[in-house]
UniProtKB/TrEMBL annotation:
This is Polygalacturonase. Belongs to the glycosyl hydrolase 28 family. Pfam families: Glyco_hydro_28. Keywords: Cell wall, Glycosidase, Hydrolase, Secreted. GO terms for molecular function: polygalacturonase activity. PANTHER family: PECTIN LYASE-LIKE SUPERFAMILY PROTEIN (PTHR31339:SF3), PECTIN LYASE-RELATED (PTHR31339). It comes from the Eukaryota. It is found in: Secreted, Cell wall. The keyword Secreted applies. It comes from Hevea brasiliensis. InterPro entries: GH28_Enzymes (IPR051801), Glyco_hydro_28 (IPR000743), PbH1 (IPR006626), Pectin_lyas_fold (IPR012334), Pectin_lyase_fold/virulence (IPR011050).
Amino acid sequence: MTLYLARGAVIKATQDSSNWPLIAPLPSYGRGRERPGGRYISFIHGDGLSDVVITGENGTIDGQGDVWWSMWRQRTLKFTRPNLVEIVNSRSIIISNVIFKNSPFWNIHPVYCSDVVIQFVTILAPRDSPNTDGIDPDSSSNVCIEDSFISTGDDLVAVKSGWDEYGIAYGRPSSGITIRRVTGSSPFAGIAVGSETSGGVENVLAENINLSNMGVGIHVKTNIGRGGFIRNITFSDVYVENVRTGIKIAGDVGDHPDDKFNPNALPVVKGITLKSVWGEKVQQPGSIQGLKNSPFTGICLSNINLHGVSGPRSTPWKCSDVSGAALEVSPWPCSELTATHQAATCSDHI
């Protein structure tokens, strides 16, 4: 089927939370993402679909999320807020030429899906709107996100695959994800992997990305208890302007669903390539901090210029528990990446 929004068409979500049915949590999350138990169904929700198109002439899907943001701020939410669009267990999905605005929670969430194309979309939410991620491919494969503008209150694109012990048990990775020609701004990350990566994330390419007024340009994030892996991730031709941190790869980000997570379930992060990244007005160029008992390896940086803000010297790179190589990186990164004997692991990439 095709949902077609003609020019000027607007679909508005009700603001009365009693009109939103509750549905079961996703098995790879074990509970609602922000509250225990079930969650409110997404405004546009699909399960077990194939060959479905959401498109039009830039009509609008408006989540009218401000009542939900207020409940979150006042801590009066009983269950996890609804996404604007969630497609579950589906294949061959196209979402294009639609404006998504004011989502109560995440905007577009394909989960347990394959063969998904999201292109020519505009996603808008106020900078201070909580958790209004743009597009979050989750335990999904063969996903293409391209030619879109996203300006929200959280990560513009975040690749995920389940949460701690529930994601480990479900065991469905995200793989074969291409993100290209995406422009936007956010107080959080431009292109992110994580932090929920317990099913694993691999084979991701993000290229031709243009970001301004950001918290973090590129953010790869995970935590103890997540387990899983993050491997073969490439970021290329990224421009960032007016950003707090240019590049961040971290092993200490994100909360846990409950106290049943296994603190010894350590993520494996290897083979992350960043090339041709240019930044202006960057407060801190980068921070790469692995885990003591699971160091991040094969972190390969090349042709990276992250120019600081005027005035006193900007903060240097911060690194720990990481190995890899750096070539033509300014400001010069940490010694862990510049030791020549490490370069072999990166020679294929840079």
